[in-house]
Amino acid sequence: MTNSVSQWIEKASLIKDPLVEAAGNAASPNEQVNWLLFASALKQGIDLAPLQKFIVELQKNIKSLAELPAPSEDLIFSVIAKCRLRSWSLASVAAGIAWSVGRFARARDNRLDLWVKNHSASDIWRSCGEIFYMGKTSPLRPKALDFLFRVKKGGAPLPHSAGARRWLIKTNAYNADESPKEKLRTANSLYKKLYPKNPALACHALQFFTEPLGEGYFCQKISPCNSCLVAE
Fold this sequence. Notes:
This protein is mainly alpha-helical. It contains twelve helices and two strands, in the order H-H-H-H-H-H-H-H-H-H-H-H-E-E. The chain has two domains: 2-15 and 158-227, no CATH class; 18-150, no CATH class. It is globular.
């Protein structure tokens, strides 16, 4: 099974990260980082595909998250409605998060690309607590870990994705009684176990495991459900 899992991870690694792909629509490196930070802050109570769609729709109306005047709340609510996300848990605060990310970028001369390059993972992780809904009160700040992973900044634990959790559940290795810190450690151990030579590749791949995409899943791009490596 080890060889099969390695092959699956290598195939899944070819699937583009939806949030990185959406952020990549921005014209400049600093704006790409702005959008990626915004997407990371929004990654709560929503699947990857609808979040990608929301970001892309916003980009049609917003050139820069850091420019003033800031995007209007009405504009952001209209995109939420268009994307059918009114019931999303962060729908009511999405505008506030956008404003917070913009303020954060302006405080760093709107060059978050250079800020990421010139600061350590721990400094970035700590600073992300300034952003609305980025996990200031969380001892782990999982959204900050998500951001660090997507900007390819080493030196921090890899994020515990919903896909990794689903893999653990499917393989009867998930322990719901673990603390958040223990769950993060378990996820990182899983990545190392499944793909020792590059755990980050396993982290990228596992986010797609039974991750909803339309009426199916991202992982169906790799193999049909009836040939799933961890099918019951």
